[in-house]
Amino acid sequence: MSNRQSVITVLTDAVEKDPNNVSLRLHLAELLLEENEAEKALEQAGAVLNLQPDNLEALDMAARAAGLLGEVEKANGYKRLRDALSGKGETNKTIKQEDLFDDDILSADFIDDSPTPMKPVGVGPMFEFKDDKTNKDDELLDETDEIWEVEEPDIKLEDVAGMEKVKERLQMAFLAPLQNPELMKFYGKSLRGGLLLYGPPGCGKTFIARATAGELGAKFISVGLSDVLDMWLGNSEKNLHEIFERARRKAPCVLFFDELDAVGRKRSLVRYSGVSGVVNQLLAEMDSVGNNNEGVFILAATNHPWDVDVALRRPGRLDRMLLVLPPDAPARKAVLEYHLRDRPVEKLDLSSIAKSTDGFSGADVAHLCESAAELAMSDSIKSGRVRPINMNDFKQAMKSIYPSTRAWFETARNFALFSNEGGIYDDLVDYLKSQRML
Fold first, then answer.
1. What is the pLDDT of residue 85?
2. How high is the pLDDT of residue 370?
3. Tell me: the pLDDT tens digits for 38-78?
4. Is there a single domain that holds both residue 238 and residue 355?
5. What is the pLDDT of residue 114?
6. Is the peptide bond before 252 cis (omega within 30 degrees of 0)?
7. Residue 58 within any structural domain of the chain
8. Which residue did the predictor score with more confidence, 4 or 201?
């Protein structure tokens, strides 16, 4: 084993023991890139971005790793986001397919000899490039040219396993008033405001948001950081305004902000003024200054609610926070049934497997099914005899798969203990006590 490989092994062990250590992950990602282990490097850079979505070094490494893997669009996306956050002015340069096999890719200086010109957006007289006819045409774009996809989910809350408290809160906040308009009018109930779903990753926050839209018979628009941020001054705010305008035109519509801590990060934590402007614009849109948000239901999800700007949680905005916990045993069994429905299985005791996976997120359970299937397939290849997935495959898979939620709860415990102003984390405290984590 080379010296560098030895260092990588040591760093990998250290990261497993301290998964929130950003410096360790970045160092490990750099060494993995030097060893041409791009997939592992991308995994480490992605873990850093989950912790710090605006980390420029992680974005740069992610772009380099994706480039080495041949994932052109993903590499360009990371680079555009990096340049938007750092204020660089050449984010329209893209990676060419032939450059993916060039050693210079590691420098992340991706060059396209004929980039598509990008027109700056006028923010004031000194930035305006005004052409009355062109501007009018831009404002009257046909909806088929809009870049934000509008979905019509065909799933409903009954398709979501478990999460009974979450469903009950959604019913009270959105569904019951909409289904009983006369009572809503009698009690003066408004459908303004929104709901912030928080909890460990992989527990179904995005899925239940889609199911809510399906239950309402509403359109669904999912918004991420890359949908909003732009390198040009004022364009990020304009993107956000256009997203809300489209949601208003499509009402009833569920507007879902995934990873809200990236778009609505605490302004005290933001190092770039452009991101602060996005938060201010988001506040203005949610207050509906000069607009009407009636019929626009705002849902958001985050793994780091403590990083979300407190102004976003003011009454009338995302005024209700709801903890989305790992699935219970019946829900885990339902997830197992779903992911095994099209796979050959033999004598599986799903109740026993569900009981053995306490603390697993929905994504962990799905990964367990995938790993068991891989073991069965590998054994079939070696023996030359195709066989179904059995209990032994699951027992073997569970030896190397652990709940990914543990690290999140370790971090969340500190905030539940020391940052529980106004009781916003009371439900988290109750859960931690029930699990003997407090």
1. 77
2. 95
3. 889 999 988 888 888 878 888 889 999 988 888 888 888 88
4. no
5. 40
6. yes
7. yes
8. 201
Residue among 139, 110, 105 nearest 122 (CA): 139
Q: Same domain, yes or no, for 232 and 370?
A: no
In a domain, 133, yes or no: no
Give the per-residue pLDDT at 76.
85
**118: which 2 tokens?**
């990008």
Number of domains in the chain: 4
Same domain, 382 and 245: no
Q: Please report the sign of the dihedral spanned by the C-alpha atoms of residue 209, residue 211, residue 215, residue 216.
A: positive
Q: Hey, which residues does 321 pair with through a beta bridge?
A: 196
- Asked, for residue 54, whether it belongs to a domain, the answer is yes
* Residues 98 and 159 both lie in one domain: no
Maximum separation of any 2 CA atoms in the chain, in Å: 74
The tens digit of pLDDT for each residue in 204-248 reads 999 999 998 898 888 999 998 888 988 887 888 999 999 999 999
Cβ(80)–Cβ(64) below 8 Å = no
Number of other CB atoms surrounding residue 376 within 10 Å: 24
Structural domain that includes position 422 = 405-434
Let me know whether 192 and 277 are in one domain.
yes
Whether 357 and 415 share a structural domain:
no
Shared-domain flag, residues 29 and 170: no
Q: Are residues 158 and 303 in the same domain?
A: yes
Place of tokens 């402007």: 277
Supply angle C-alpha 336, 342, 343, rounded to 5: 75
Nearest Cα to Cα of residue 206 among 227, 192, 221, 217: 221
Q: How confident is the model at residue 327 (pLDDT cuts 50, 70, 90)?
A: very high
Q: What are phi and psi of 322, to 5 degrees?
A: -135, 125
Cα 88 to Cα 102: distance, rounded to the nearest angstrom:
24
- Helices 273-287 and 72-86: angle between axes, nearest 10 degrees: 100
Phi-psi region of 384 (alpha: psi -120 to 50; beta: other; left: phi over 0): left
H/E run at residue 194: strand 194-198
